[in-house]
Amino acid sequence: MWSLIPVLNCAQLLRLCPSQCKPPVVRITTGDPRADSPPQRSTMSDEAFVTLATNDSYARGAMVLGQSLRNHNTTKKLVALVGPHVAEPCRGTLRSIFDEVCVVDVMDSGDTAHLALMKRPDLGVTFTKLHCWTLTHYSKCVFMDADTLVLSNIDELFEREELSAAPDPGWPDCFNSGVFVFRPSDETHEKLLAFCGENGSFDGGDQGVLNSFFDTWATADISKHLPFIYNLSSIAIYSYLPAFKQYGHDAKVVHFLGKVKPWNYSYDAQKGEVRGHSTSPDPCQLHPDYLLMWWQLYTESVLPLLQHAYGDTPFNSGFVQESQNAKLHEDVQERPQPSAPPPPQKVSSEERKQRWEAGQIDYMGDDSFANIERKLDSFLK
Ligand SMILES: [Mn+2]
Questions:
Q1: CA–centroid distance, residue 57 to ligand 1 (Å)
Q2: What is the 254 CA–ligand 1 centroid distance (Å)?
Q3: Which residue, 212, 229, 246, sits at the end of a domain?
Q4: CA 181 to ligand 1 center in whole angstroms
Q5: Region labeled Disordered — which residues (predicted)?
Q6: What is the pLDDT of residues 119-172, one digit of tens each?
Q7: Could you tell me which of 28, 60, 204, 314 has the fewest CB atoms within 10 Å of its CB?
């Protein structure tokens, strides 16, 4: 039964999803005793959240992430690692949100890094990420990808040990490296680089390297398995909707996995709407409400800082302009229309299943969310 769910157009499915399984599209404020402590800036100076931006787009993600951590009153330091290509106004904006912004140029770093990079030039970004282990003025850190968004205070993650992470939704015996707890150490850093140079990465990125290096994660110590709510990805929402309905409201960190990131969309501030990205096959692969939260945070807290940093210099704000409005309209018209669904008629259950599997889904009729939900509820009761 569940295997049928991913066939649905997820955006449509999720738009129809009842409100209790959607996150609130407002900034979460204090009041929940479990969540945020009173505002105070960075009292625990030897622990830090760390993120990474290798270009200006990811830098915007890092800004939103940093701001989301601030909004939930983290007591930890915030550190952004930036690649050499991140523009100065972006670095300036990051400096106003983060306690520390470190420019990491792997080419300039130590011998082991250089040597490893010579062997595996394809892993440049991975080496930049592994650089987080050199932040030895902190005793413990939580790394978070720039495409994550924090929904409540998560300082409790610092009670965990290296290497703690949540399962990857695609292969749960691997951890997802978008959120992980680690202990900075030059020794570990050197070992990781050497390992990387010798063995490469089975997936071409940092997740492959880290899973091969911390290879007992799956079996050795369950306390190193972070609950999934600390790294909730869209793909998991789609592949197991009943679980999302049951547990989704507890989500603390959303991870915008996949090729299309929140900053690849554009935003119509007047209407408060996120617009699809024209190169994306499915413009709403990401959960529409989390996407809206990202854009609201960006608009309220990050954009004014960027505008200040850029001054009169034009930059890509991500906002829909009048000309872009026309362009978007063109894109929609140019795109070949999917073949029309068959005219509504009474069909057998078996025939409906076949049509579903062929991608002919009657969203407004038999396969509407209300009908699917009724069916799900009959199983779940
Ligand atoms: Mn990511």
A1: 13
A2: 10
A3: 229
A4: 15
A5: 326-362
A6: 777 777 888 899 999 999 999 999 999 999 999 999 999 999 999 999 999 999
A7: 314
